[in-house]
Amino acid sequence: MPQTPQNILKSVFGYEAFRPLQQEIIDNLLQKRDTMVIMPTGGGKSLCYQIPALLFDGLTVVVSPLISLMKDQVEQLQQLGVAAAFLNSSLSPAEFKATVKQVTDGKLKLLYMAPEGLLTDRTLEMLHTQTLSCLTIDEAHCISEWGHDFRPEYRRLVRVRKAFPGAVLIALTATATPRVQKDIVETLEFESTNAFIASFNRENLFMEIVAKTDPATQLLDFLDRHKEQSGIIYCFSRRQVDSLAGYLAALGHSVLPYHAGLEDGVRKSNQDQFIRDDVQIMIATIAFGMGINKPNVRFVVHYDLPKNIESYYQEIGRAGRDGLRADCLLLFGYGDLQKIRYFIDQKENTQEQRAARMHLQALVDLAESHQCRRIPLLRYFGETYTRENCAMCDNCLRGEQPTQDVTVAAQKLLSCIKRTREMFGANHIIDILRGSENKKIIDFGHQRLSTYGIGVEYSRDQWLQIIRQLISQGVLNKAPEYGSLKLTAAGIEVLFGRQKAHVVLQQEPPRQPMQLELEYDRVLFEQLRQKRKQLADQQLIPPYAVFPDRTLIEMAKYFPQSEDRLRSLHGIGHVKLEKYGRIFLMLIRNYCREKGIAEVPFITTSLKKKTPGMLRHVQVGSAFAAGHSIEALQRQFNIKKSTIVAHLYRYLQEGLSLTAKQIRDEIHLNEKEVADVIACFDLHGAEYLTPVFEDLGRRIPYETLHLLRIYYLLQDRNET
Questions:
Q1: CA angle 689, 695, 699 (to 5 degrees)
Q2: Among 13, 9, 115, which Cα is nearest to 572's?
Q3: In-domain check, residue 601
Q4: Closest Cα to residue 424, out of 453, 407, 445?
């Protein structure tokens, strides 16, 4: 029977079905068409060239920028029985020579190399002894000067392409804006552009961005909600990494540091301990993560601000690669912003400075946005996110919030800035407004200002929110050197009452509990996890190279009793079944015998994603359609009314059935009021609620308008 991509997918990799675009990309590559792949981290890029490599007659060379990345990929492939190796400086002379012999003897299907090693005459001569079927360029954004991680040696890879004209080329990356994509295609001189761009949306990542007010306390609160879970905390500097690692270790957390200032041996040891689950949390600079394919990272925290959206997206992409829910927290502080701007100003190349400032401003816009986080994030990568409420970010859980008229407060603030000659930053101005008696206030004599103590009606956090939003609206500027606040022309208009000021004063979003899956046997899962760790340690490989968490969860959910049943689980191919099947089956059978548990029937498509933000809207919508009230659903699911309504809206948007009468019964307005709202929807459309809210004089709450929009759309559907 001839091998096909589909049976290799199951027999080698243990997966039942391809993810979006994988099959199309593989088919395109097998037809020897140059291919560009833009796919999010954890989206399955590796399979797009690994499966063709097993079908091509010759060798596939994979260009990869990091030794750790190569090592991780090769270890996993070897566990699957695939003939793969790498050539880099980490090998001893004997190991290097042995791998070269494997290449020249035609024993390998995949060879991983760094661009510098591939570009040497010695390497090119070695490769000419074989048929080079495919040249794979991973992390292809490194080609572009407009990317966030430009590497000049990547631009020289076109030399290899020309040296092997018979090899098909595939370039892959997770972070490429449309401009970077164009640069990749032009640099590599694609004869024809076959670009496959998957959605950048990682639905299983919960995104939260909060003001950085008391970072140590905020972090401890977050870690308290993620006990016994694996995660990464990113810091801006080496000093911050060491300080935070020491602080958390002293409090009993399982942490290790990682940055370029550590000795190579220490850095490697720390990384290996994290990958092998010997330590739970890695505190790191951006030097960490590019070579990490650890699927059970349950959270990523940015303790300090990243430099751009690409870095942020790539770093949060290291969480939840098993498809289960993961939490991503960014602490957003303007002090961090000033540090990054300082380093940008040190660049000598003005074009680099301009590009870096543009990238940074896009990140600030994301952090300050009140929209669903996915809207500006995906827009940056050229993708439109059409869903209004993702239910998996802090802004969506808060629901749409009306703005507040803060004109009087803004005038107090602007007057205070003027009276201090626009020489001070936000914290000092807030201290004056709130009547602080600290030394700096007294030294400057600012307790004698007419604005001293006139702003006690707002907390420090609320004043910071007002200031951030006024900066975003162009009412204030923040000097790049020292962070002093300055009035703009629009600020003068507000100060003298010729223009109003409106902001959203946010509350903390409701906390969603971490739920990886609905139901599975936790005791059995822990036994399976310990057995996996034991097997991994014996072979000096990471536990996920034996089986990922998702496979163990399915074992603990369905209690398979035979090899046939085991083979149908996620991630169990022919090689892993032979290697580990009997060991895990014996453990499961013994457990079931002791507890009197029978095998649970299951479908071969494996676990569905049942995280709160993914199928919860179907659960809520179905229960509502079955006659449950919104109040009853709030109690059942332990979530706010606004979140229930958002789920119902999404349920409707996906074409599922609700009745207008059920929705009308939940709307506590008289017929005239409802008719007025319907008329506004007729006038403004139902895409956005703010125009309707404003047109109705702000008298009907957003929560009610959300319900009325569903009612309006149901009436329209019925008429159609």
A1: 85
A2: 13
A3: no
A4: 445
CA distances for 299 relative to 175, 230, 278, 317, 326, angstroms: 20, 7, 17, 10, 5
Are 125 and 243 in the same domain?
Answer: no
At residue 613, the pLDDT reads 37
**CA 360 to CA 374: how far, in whole Å?**
17
Both 213 and 240 in a single domain?
Answer: yes
166 is written with which tokens? 């018979």
DSSP SS3 for 301: strand
Please give the structure tokens belonging to residue 101. Answer: 């012999």
Radius of gyration (Cα) for the chain, nearest Å?
A: 28
Look up residue 305 and give its amino acid. Answer: L
Give the burial class of 425: count Cβ atoms within 10 A of its Cβ; 0-12 exposed, 13-18 middle, 19 or more buried: middle
**265 and 374 in one domain?**
yes
User: Which residue spans within 154-204 are E strands per DSSP?
Assistant: 168-173, 195-197
To the nearest 10 degrees (0 to 180), the angle between helices 641-653 and 616-625 is: 90
DSSP state for residue 382 in the 8-state scheme: T
Tokens 């801006």 belong to which residue? 236
* Short-list 43, 581, 5, CA closest to 293: 43
* Over residues 389-404, mean pLDDT: 80
What percentage of the chain has pLDDT greater than the value 90? 36
Nearest Cα to Cα of residue 638 among 512, 508, 518, 509: 512
550: domain CATH number? 1.10.150.80
Does the pLDDT value for residue 717 go beyond 60? no
pLDDT of residue 688: 65
For residues 578 and 682, state if they share a domain.
no
* Residue from 83, 142, 77, 79 nearest 115 by CA: 142
Residues 124 and 159: their CA atoms lie apart, in Å, by 10
Q: Which has the closest alpha carbon to 277: 619, 560, 555, 545?
A: 545
Q: What's the pLDDT tens digit per position in 23-67?
A: 999 999 999 999 999 888 777 889 999 999 999 999 999 998 877
pLDDT in tens, 537-577: 998 888 988 998 889 988 998 899 998 888 888 888 888 89
Pair 183, 143: CB distance under 8 Å: yes
Q: CA 578 to CA 580: how far, in whole Å?
A: 6
Token digits of residue 125: 């001569």
CA-to-CA distance for 270 and 608, rounded, in angstroms?
34
CATH number of the domain enclosing 498: 1.10.10.10
Q: Kindly state whether residues 654 and 708 are assigned to the same domain.
A: yes
Residue 529 in domain: yes
8 A C-beta contact, residue 327 and residue 206:
yes
Residue 330 and residue 308: Cα distance in Å, rounded? 13
Residue 86's contacts (CB-CB under 8 Å, 6 or more residues apart) are: 67, 70, 71, 74, 99, 111, 112, 113
Encoded tokens for 186: 């032009």
Beta bridge partners of 282: 232, 256
Report pLDDT for 235. Answer: 94
Instruction: Report phi then psi at 542, rounded to 5.
Output: -70, 150
171, β-bridge pairs: 36, 137
How many CB atoms within 10 Å of residue 110? 22
Question: Do residue 481 and residue 532 come from a single domain?
Answer: no
Where in the sequence is the domain holding 250, given as residue range(s)?
205-398
